[in-house]
Amino acid sequence: MAEFVMPQLGADMGAGKLIQWRKKVGDRVQRGDIIADVETDKADIEVEVFSSGTIEKILIQPGEKVPVGTVMALIREERKPAAAEVPAVPKEVVAPAAPAVPPPTPLPRAAPAAPAVAIPGAPRLHVSPVARKLAADLGIDPATITGTGPGGRITLEDVQQAAQAQAAKPAPAPEMDRAARMRQAIGAAMARSKREIPHYYLSTTIDMSRALAWLTQENLKRSVEDRLVYGVLMVKAVALALRQFPDLNGFWVAGKPIPKPDIHVGVAISLRGGGLVAPAIHDTDRLSLGELMKSFRDLIQRARAGSLRSSELSDPTITVTSLGEQGVEAVFGVIYPPQVALVGFGKIVERPWASDGQITARPILTATLSGDHRVTDGHRGGLFLATVERLLQEPSQL
Amino acid sequence: MTKMTYREAVRAAMRKALREDPRVFLMGEDVGRYGGAFAVSLGLLAEFGPERIRDAPLSESAFFGAGIGAALGGMRPIVEIMTINFSMLAMDQILNNAATLRHMSGGQLNVPIVCRVATGGGRQMAAQHSHSLEGWYAHIPGIKVLTPATVPDAYGMVLAALREPDPVFIFEHATLYPLEGEVDESTETFDITRAAVMRPGKDVSLITYGGTLGKTMQAAVRLASDGVDAEVIDLRTLRPLDTRTIVNSVAKTHRAAVIDEAWRTGSFSAEISAQIMENAFDDLDAPVARVCSAEAPMPYAKHLEAAALPQVEQIVAAAQELVSRHG
Amino acid sequence: MTASDTSARPLVDREHSLFLLREMLRIRRFEEKAAEMYSLQKIHGFLHLYIGEEATGVGAMQVFTQQDNIVATYREHGQALVRGMPARVLMAEMFGKATGCSRGHGGSMHFFDVSRRFFGGYAIVGGGLPVAVGLALADKMQNRQAITGCYFGDGAVAEGEFHESMNLAALWKLPVVFLCENNLYAMGTALERYQAQTDISRKAAAYGLPSSAVDGMDILAVEAAAKQAADYVRGGNGPYLLESRTYRFRAHSMADPDLYRTKEEIEGWKKRDPIVLFERKLRELGLLTDADLARIESEIATEIEDAVQFAEASPREPIEDLLKDVGGQVAR
């Protein structure tokens, strides 16, 4: 039996609220299927399942907010039943002698749905009638309340206090609007970053004339919907460069750097209502520019629609943020924990550029690196930026 | 307003009725020359004579049944039964005749009889004079059951009962007779349809009637000093029961205790509890509590009787339990 | 006193005699029809037949006026009919119909007609006696000249209510004729098996009231004895106990297999069938002809047939009215 738990969908995510189940008890799920939608402080996220099998039991109901790691559903994994479990129905009975007794029916695939609070092995929740009613009216899950009545019964006063506490809590008060909550979450993450991560910042300027010239030619070959934006070149260049700098690609967890073998570049996407998310483009280094473009468009769309997948939020191994469209020349970003590096790109501007003793006007891009000094230093960072620059001079190789 | 005792209030009401309505007469054991076992009818014989203040033999069934017949024949009898335990001897007439005749005759007959009965313990009268069986009466369709707990009700309920077309039983808790209070004898309207909120409160509803009202009020005062604001309800009429007042109170306090001098099992307190569950389930924050008499025949010895009856301490404890919080 | 003391006295008047015979026959035919209807499942519950006891019902009722009160038992069809309640409302009551005298609430055991001061059939043995005492008390207290006729069976004599009521009525000198229809059995238990003193009329002595016993199979004797009792009571002397010794030819109720009596005993009593005896007497006196009897039977048959048809055709009490006449409800 596999457990489907409330996934961690960001560094500072303590709990998530189930919006809806996409599957019900008895449904078959394949690894990777979207099983549920979860609301975090940052976004509504489509959560995928990592087991294949049949949903045996649903333990959490829509509207409930549960801590990360809480078992939300049980999935009966697919495997060959052991010999003893094979239903005793002969597959090919030639001629039953006396079919008076019906053959035993196989066990039903799914057990009947259990009541919401019936966590196996957990004692029945004791809630007084009026407390139950008030909790339902306020949308408070009684299971999150500690009962102080006789035998641990949740009383009216317990619910009233829980409601007050919830109202007083600075963070996820239900009446707080989405943008404010996201701002709080970003603030918390960034504060933690600035508090914990000794940042260093490097900057370099990159001549983009070759890249842009190549891009113009390349786009002529593509249909309108397949055309590339220069941003994908930068992301791809970063991804490829990371292959040589695995120490910049990974996490800092529990006092140790954990380089990641796979390169999942998180791209910062600002949301219309304010705030931003940085979902991952999985295996960025292995995608073609066309695939990258498609992923990028898809991510933007889904980020703004609030339907990102859980893994997309939790998987980025580095973040790329580009503020060129906003007219920014250089970005000195704050690393998103537990990542250890962030690459920033400003806008491409025409600048006088000295080359081979001549001054010409060239499209210039400022690339920056915010590095975690616990993991890397300026030397490694400088080499990384130089590699990015070099890669952008050979766009056809990207 | 006139200051008088509960006993005097019942007497004053009967006197008023006897004066104003020639159909009214009082019948029972020792109501005449003796003046009533509890001296309720003292002096009435002198004023109204032996025809209307009629001493009856120790024949509860016959004189109660005679009351039925007299009522059928156009009189307005007040039958006094000395104690509720004795009323069992008249139960055939009460249940099989008084309560049923109107319905069984297809509405042709009605029995306007008023029956006053002393009830309850607390006077060391032991196991054949001390019980609280009014809940049994409240079980019977066809009759009304009144339980005056205050001096004004002792007065008003007699007069209200005499206006009813059907049998009315008035259970007078014997410890209440010396109780003093004020009666407005000029009043002509007496409501017996509603329970009374004797003390408003917000934390817990203490629901009682008759002899335990006083103890419950004392308990409420003590609870107040502990910071528990108890609402006290005097049911006044057990049948037909004013469920609305009970439900309204529970909706406010979310907790209820029923205080009833009767035994607990199969009792009127069980009925109140069931009514709350049926009509106010979603308002409850705790199970309904009950403070009742010990499940034993009423003992004689003072300490045993005190232990058997609901006491202020138990009412306080029950209320505290309801509002208390356990970690 | 014995039955023979009163047997010769009544004036035998043809019109009145034919009336008495007719009333006994009405009861007999009505009861036979009721038994038939019971077997056809038109009547349910308990059905206690009066067959054999008609002389007491008819004879005694002659002495009560319409101002007097009648209290009866669950074996009260005879008294109700002779009191003047129409056969059709009685049959309809037993059919459980809204047109029944008690709107189908009472059935066979609980006939009421307040307009005829027929205060009902009481099915708790002895339960009607205190009520009768109270009705008499009301009359006395209101200075009305009415008296109360209280019918009960021999079984009631074993109840405390009998003794309490005798005493109370005697004590207060209330105008009640206590009329014991002694059919020798309290349900299935013979009188001598439940009473130490089997002469019921003698029990009155304990309460200081006069009493007599009469042959309950002789209607003229019953009428005469009842008149004597009623006259005494009307005279303001207090109550009187009249015991009428009779016998029921049918079992206690339709549910009774009648295992406690021998066929011989029953057949013996049937030879003293009050209707047969009275018929014979009237024929001997030349007061009754075959033509008279045929006419009476025919008229009765028509009445009974009408009663059945009426009961059959009548509507049932609407269920919505189930609670309508329950007392003690909140006034609307």
Written description of the protein model:
Chain A is of the alpha+beta class. In chain A, helix 1 runs parallel beside helix 2 and helix 5 crosses helix 8. Chain B is α/β, with parallel strands linked by helices and 327 residues long. By secondary structure, chain C is of the alpha/beta class. The longest helix of chain C is centred in the first third of the chain and has 26 residues. The radius of gyration of chain C is 19 Å and the shape is globular. At the B-C interface, helix 3, helix 5 and helix 6 of B face strand 2, helix 6 and helix 7 of C.
Helix-strand layout with pairing:
The complex is a heterotrimer of chains A (398), B (327) and C (332).
Chain A: E1 2-5, E2 15-21, E3 28-29, E4 34-39, E5 44-48, E6 53-58, E7 65-67, E8 71-77, H1 129-138, H2 156-168, H3 178-196, E9 199-207, H4 209-221, H5 230-244, E10 250-253, E11 256-259, E12 265-267, E13 269-270, E14 276-277, E15 280-281, H6 289-305, E16 308-309, H7 310-314, E17 318-322, E18 341-345, E19 349-355, E20 358-372, H8 378-392
Parallel strand pairs in A: 5-16, 12-17, 17-18
Antiparallel strand pairs in A: 1-8, 2-4, 2-7, 3-6, 4-5, 6-8, 9-20, 10-11, 12-15, 13-14, 18-20, 19-20
Chain B: E1 2-5, H1 6-20, E2 24-28, H2 44-52, E3 53-55, H3 60-72, E4 76-81, H4 84-87, H5 91-98, H6 101-104, E5 114-119, H7 134-138, E6 144-146, H8 151-162, E7 168-173, E8 180-183, E9 196-199, E10 204-208, H9 213-225, E11 230-234, E12 237-239, H10 243-253, E13 256-263, H11 268-280, E14 289-293, H12 302-308, H13 312-323
Parallel strand pairs in B: 2-3, 2-4, 4-5, 5-7, 6-7, 10-11, 10-13, 13-14
Antiparallel strand pairs in B: 1-8, 6-12, 9-11
Helix pairs in contact in B: 1-8, 3-5, 9-13, 10-11
Chain C: H1 4-7, H2 14-39, H3 54-61, E1 69-73, H4 77-83, H5 87-94, E2 118-122, H6 128-141, E3 148-153, H7 160-171, E4 176-182, E5 185-186, E6 189-190, H8 191-194, E7 211-215, H9 219-237, E8 240-245, H10 263-270, H11 274-284, H12 290-313
Parallel strand pairs in C: 1-2, 1-3, 3-4, 4-8, 7-8
Antiparallel strand pairs in C: 5-6
